[in-house]
Specification:
246 residues; 15 strands; 3 helices; alpha+beta
Length: 246
């Protein structure tokens, strides 16, 4: 099947919970391709969106997952079991599960804040609705109460969160923007999206294709639930919603 390009509406507006789109293809496994979408596809540790596609007659096609196809430019909406298959050219109204998405947005932003508090190379990350984890290449022992307090200072400061694009050449000239030790941003498109925190990116700036809240205060109460030693120089931080216990 020919690789198709999907306009990723979430890159410019992560708060877009519904949109209209046209079916451009259905793959051999029933995955639905659209000309544009507000559904985020699994990437960078953030799960893809779930929700449903509304047809003209009011019936719905429940979407169990959203993934990338042959490239990041191809976004596939994976229907739940026993769903109807739309026709190519059919117009649909897209509805993401907003409550789930918004929790993931808050969590993803919290993960970025943690990389500010703990400025070490990242060796892994996973964003979840209730708990996220970030792994760092670090040997130091830190106190989870202290890290939690520093996180909440950043949250309560209400720093703006926004995205901007730079060229691949600009990224190569500023390698310090990449915090991941093992994973580099994909090349070939000519540009890289940065997620920035603070006025003039004063708090943080790093390549990221995920969805985020527009201000750190939207993250809400957050704390480090656990710090695990995963090797001599690897620490896993588990981030959870809610006040630090104690």
């Amino acid at each position: 099947m020919t690789v198709q390009t999907t306009e990723a509406l979430f890159l410019e507006d992560p708060y877009l919970s519904t949109a209209e789109a046209i079916v451009t293809g259905v793959n051999d496994r029933g995955g639905i391709l659209l000309d544009k979408t507000c559904f985020y596809a699994t990437s960078g540790g953030q799960p893809g969106d779930t929700g449903f596609l509304e047809r003209a007659d009011g019936s719905r096609i429940d979407i169990a997952a959203t993934i990338n196809g042959e490239s990041k430019a191809e976004i596939i909406h994976v229907p739940a079991n026993d769903q109807a298959i739309p026709e190519i050219g059919e117009k649909l109204v897209l509805h993401i599960d907003w409550d789930r998405r918004y929790r993931l947005m808050r969590m993803h932003t919290a993960c970025h804040l943690l990389t500010v508090v703990c400025p070490y190379p990242i060796t892994g990350a996973s964003v979840g609705q209730d708990e996220s984890r970030v792994d760092f290449d670090m040997a130091e022992t830190v106190d989870k109460a202290d890290v939690s307090a520093q996180l909440m200072d950043l949250v309560d400061a209400g720093h703006p969160v926004f995205s901007q694009w730079i060229s691949e050449h600009e990224l190569e000239a500023n390698p310090g923007l990449v915090k991941s030790k093992n994973v580099r941003p994909p090349k070939g498109s000519g540009r890289v999206r940065l997620v920035c925190i603070g006025e003039d990116s004063a708090v943080d700036s790093q390549p990221c294709g995920g969805t985020h809240v527009s201000g750190t205060n939207e993250v809400g109460a957050i704390h480090i639930g656990k710090i695990e030693k995963k090797g001599r120089e690897n620490r896993r931080f588990r981030i959870r919603f809610g006040e630090f216990p104690g």
